[in-house]
Amino acid sequence: MSAGFTGQVALDGPSGTGKSSVARAVASRLGAAYLDTGAMYRAATVAVLDAGVDPEDAEAVAAVVAAARIEVGTAADTELVEVDGVDVAVRIRGAEVTRAVSAVSAVPSVRRRLVDQQRALVSAADAVVVEGRDIGTVVLPDATLKVYLTAAPEARAQRRAAQLGLTTPQEIAELAADLRRRDEYDSSRADSPLRPAEDAVVVDSTHLDREGVVDRVVELALSTVGAGT
Ligand SMILES: Nc1ncnc2c1ncn2[C@@H]1O[C@H](COP(=O)(O)OP(=O)(O)O)[C@@H](O)[C@H]1O
Ligand SMILES: Nc1ccn([C@@H]2O[C@H](COP(=O)(O)OP(=O)(O)O)[C@@H](O)[C@H]2O)c(=O)n1
User: Which CATH architecture has domain 7-17+133-228?
Assistant: First the structure.
């Protein structure tokens, strides 16, 4: 149902803070389109793995991604992710892709290509919620609202473990280590590192449930209506 919001909500933050689930719910509540930019970097990673290329070989990665057709949907209630016409929506969430995605997404030409595509998708919508790592800083520096989601590392690891059905202490420890590694990789890369935009509202979800975060972001988005921003 449309609530009168027009413009762009940029939702950034590290893994397991609730970006995807919150962004989808906010988009539904606002009657807005939804773009998961992480799914695009994950799809690019599928192309790299299928080509048998080392994800750390930036030149080879750039060539594979330049030639791949990556398509994502922008509806909040469905997940469409394709590489060269093949549905990869399930595969992109697998461990192999998760391990390799930060290296692929650190390659500048990969970012340029996907950022161009993201801006084109966004410009087709009157209202859109876009989630990722560099939306407020690079992709949409003039977004109507920028939110940076954070949560304590333990909470993030627990949430991700529950989502993936991991239960043993060893599995959870491995997952927490993987999150740390990816945070470090994403925050320290030269091109578009993960960080809050200066004008982002930081929302800490450690002690908020998902609905609490959704309410807060919707409230912030609606406060921009008629404010001339
Ligand atoms: N505030 C919250 N409290 C508890 N669990 C949450 C919260 N927000 C999201 N989750 C759950 O945590 C998991 C990871 O959320 P997700 O949206 O995939 O995060 P991200 O996109 O930031 O990696 C999901 O199972 C989701 O339902
Ligand atoms: N705008 C974005 C979105 C994702 N990414 C990269 O893609 C990876 C996967 O993003 P994601 O949003 O699917 O990750 P999760 O938070 O769901 O684990 C991140 O770890 C980043 O390396 C990026 O570089 N820039």
Answer: 3-Layer(aba) Sandwich (3.40)
